[in-house]
């Protein structure tokens, strides 16, 4: 007799079962107090929690967080996939794939045109249309390698709570692609847990906040969880502040965007740097996403796209993309795209990496991941705003 499969939206009735699977799959054990804390997030965090039942038993699960991400300075609704887990006896039966496809359908219905996730294996999620979208750079500096301390016109003060740094973060985050637009609940529940320690705020001469760091010191190591600055004055001041800890530390560790140029500030730039792929991203709804996308200003142009998407059939289509001078776009489906001599052919993962800003048309062309005329590729390239991708969060 065939097993009966059913996908349900989890409620508190499934909380204990869900936590049992999560603790097993991710190899952690929570105290009763910690479980109550997680239950608070289960109830209050905007999300959809999906479970695959086999003959009525929980076999696999996934969470889709309701988030917003910046693309070229504009916030987009994004479904953050997290907590994907399966009991061992149900693995390699395609259950997670079915949950992912179901989640994509639900994300589309909710208007979440993008989806991000932290992969346990890049190859696995690549099969379902997600692609690497951002790298993370990690610096390790010895105490004698820090930038020189300098004088600064403003003031650094230690603050408690996040109220005075939230607007600074949003101004900073909107300069990148793929950063989160953080809600007060995200600061309270996520940042406070993942980034413990001290908050140092830099205010300029006029008293306006221009930068901050969240950091902690332990075992003679200063770990910078978040280094945010809106101008060079703030960056220099904050590094001078870090330098004031030199007598109590041996090294500093900091994570930064892939394009960070800290080494240009150092007397000796030969420091340890590690760059590694971090999160994956996916366009959930090509038509809706391109309509919202803030293309770069330029002449009026029309570009034809043939998109392949094996797991989201609404994206498996030809699209006529018409871009106005101001960068606003209109998009229509076109079943005759194949007749267009200059149409570009691309799979959904590569389109996602391209439009989020992680890869260029030239890079994809060199890998044979986009087909079509070079002239059309160049035209599309010129209309995609240049932004570094970055995500200083985790979920």
Automatic annotation (TrEMBL):
GO molecular function list: aminoglycoside N-acetyltransferase activity
Domain N-acetyltransferase: start-end pairs: 5-153
GO biological process: aminoglycoside antibiotic catabolic process
Record key words, sorted: Transferase
PANTHER family documented for this protein: N-ACETYLTRANSFERASE EIS (PTHR37817:SF1)
Name of this protein: GNAT family N-acetyltransferase
UniProt source species: Paenibacillus pinisoli
């Amino acid at each position: 007799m065939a097993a009966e499969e059913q996908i349900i939206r989890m409620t508190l009735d499934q909380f204990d079962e869900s936590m049992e699977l999560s603790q097993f799959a991710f190899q952690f054990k929570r105290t009763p107090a910690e479980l109550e804390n997680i239950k608070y997030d289960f109830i209050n965090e905007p999300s959809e929690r999906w479970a695959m039942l086999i003959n009525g038993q929980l076999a696999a699960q996934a969470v889709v967080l309701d988030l917003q991400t910046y693309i070229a300075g504009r916030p987009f609704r994004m479904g953050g996939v997290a907590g994907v887990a399966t009991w061992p006896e149900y693995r390699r039966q395609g259950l997670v794939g079915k949950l992912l496809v179901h989640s994509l359908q639900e994300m589309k219905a909710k208007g979440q045109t993008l989806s991000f996730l932290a992969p346990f294996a890049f190859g696995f999620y690549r099969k379902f249309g997600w692609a690497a979208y951002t790298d993370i750079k990690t610096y390790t500096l010895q105490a004698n390698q820090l930038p020189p301390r300098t004088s600064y016109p403003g003031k650094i003060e230690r603050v408690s709570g996040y109220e005075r740094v939230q607007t600074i973060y949003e101004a900073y985050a909107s300069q990148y692609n793929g950063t989160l637009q953080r809600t007060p609940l995200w600061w309270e529940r996520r940042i406070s847990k993942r980034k413990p320690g001290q908050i140092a705020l830099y205010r300029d001469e006029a008293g306006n906040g221009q930068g901050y760091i969240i950091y902690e010191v332990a075992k003679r190591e200063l770990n910078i969880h978040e280094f945010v600055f809106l101008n060079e004055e703030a960056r220099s001041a904050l590094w001078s502040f870090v330098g004031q800890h030199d007598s109590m530390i041996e090294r500093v560790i900091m994570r930064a965007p892939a394009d960070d140029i800290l080494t240009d500030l150092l007397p000796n730039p030969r420091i340890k740097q590690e760059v590694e792929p971090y999160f994956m991203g996916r366009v959930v709804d090509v038509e809706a996403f391109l309509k919202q996308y803030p293309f770069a200003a330029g002449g009026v142009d029309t570009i034809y796209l043939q998109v392949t998407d094996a797991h989201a059939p609404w994206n498996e289509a030809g699209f006529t993309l018409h871009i106005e001078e101001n960068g606003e776009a209109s998009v229509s489906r076109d079943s005759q795209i194949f007749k267009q001599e200059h149409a570009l052919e691309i799979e959904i993962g590569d389109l996602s990496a391209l439009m989020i800003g992680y890869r260029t048309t030239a890079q994809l062309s060199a890998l044979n991941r986009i087909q079509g005329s070079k002239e059309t590729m160049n035209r599309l390239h010129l209309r995609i705003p240049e932004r570094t991708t970055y995500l200083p969060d985790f979920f």
